[in-house]
Amino acid sequence: MDITRSSPAPVRVVAVPPEPEPADLTALPEPITVEPLQPLPATATTATATTATTSAVTTTATTSATDVRGRRSRPRPRDLLALLRPGQWVKNLAVVPLALLDTHPWGAAAFLRTGWAVLGFTLASALVYVVNDLADRERDRLHPVKRHRPIASGRVSTLAAVVLTGALALALTGWAVAGPAWQWWPTALYLALSFAYSQGLKHVPLVDAFIVATGFVLRLVQGALLIGAQMSEWLALCVFSLCLMLALGKRRHEMTAAGRAHRPALRGYTLAFLDHLVVLVAVLTAVSYVLYLRDDASLAAGASLVTLLSAPCAVFGLARYLQLLLVEEGGGNPVHVLFRDRATLVNAALWAVLVALALLLPQSPA
Description:
- By secondary structure, the chain is an all-alpha fold.
- Helix content is 73%, strand content 0%.
- The protein contains 18 helices and no strands.
- α8 (108-135) packs antiparallel against α11 (158-178), α8 packs antiparallel against α13 and α16 packs antiparallel against α18.
- The longest helix is centred in the N-terminal third of the chain and has 32 residues, at 42-73.
- The radius of gyration is 39 Å and the shape is globular.
- Mean pLDDT is 77; it is low at 1-72.
């Protein structure tokens, strides 16, 4: 009996070994936790993220491309108007009516014919702007400022610009047919020079600036021809030299802002050469203006004092432009420089008042 009572002891010994089995079960989580961490699917994650990013960029690029194509196919009226450069139309308003200075007495017919000349040159200049932007679109994309133009930036497609060119050509033809016979030749000559300029003459140093200045003289000739006035040679020389100075100043600004790569003609200039030319032409402008007032201007009797006072205004305007160009490094857009500078605007207003008084003063009794 004592022996049978002691037999359960081995049973207890046998019962103890099963307890390590739960310890083996606790070892099971080790492969579960370690195995996913060892591969560290960071590469897979980054690859997935890279793929997702690439697909997102591709989708965005495709979307933007379709947006650009959509914009190119449907140019906004504002972009088409910007292509015509309405800010430059003031050149026609400033030059063509100068023919009225030699017309006395003034009448409604003279003003209507002046407006007709302004309209013709506005259409012609807008046509030239569109053609030039079409020809220079690839080069303009490399310029820090001109790359924002409608064609260079892609806001207006090439097809839309060509259609606009045809519409302007038709409108200009209608203007020539409706006006006096054979009095549109200055505008036609301006178009011929401008197209020759865009086809290659703009790459010839000095010739490019002289063609631009000649275009403004043709504006003056067109106004005088339609009004029936006899154009003064001194006034024509004054307009030519003034516009030549502005053209040379624009090229100087382009050289300092974007270098010589943008405009091939700039390779024939240096800053020192342009500085000398600008000052020389400014002196010619002042001298021809004074000679025009003395010899050819249709001034009222007794207006010599007013005429004398207007000469310093003209010289101050030239000096102020040279200051903006050479000191303040401006001159990229002559219209903006001349019509946004307060000193220039005040001086121009005073000059206009003096010239108007010289023209409108009553005749002094004999």
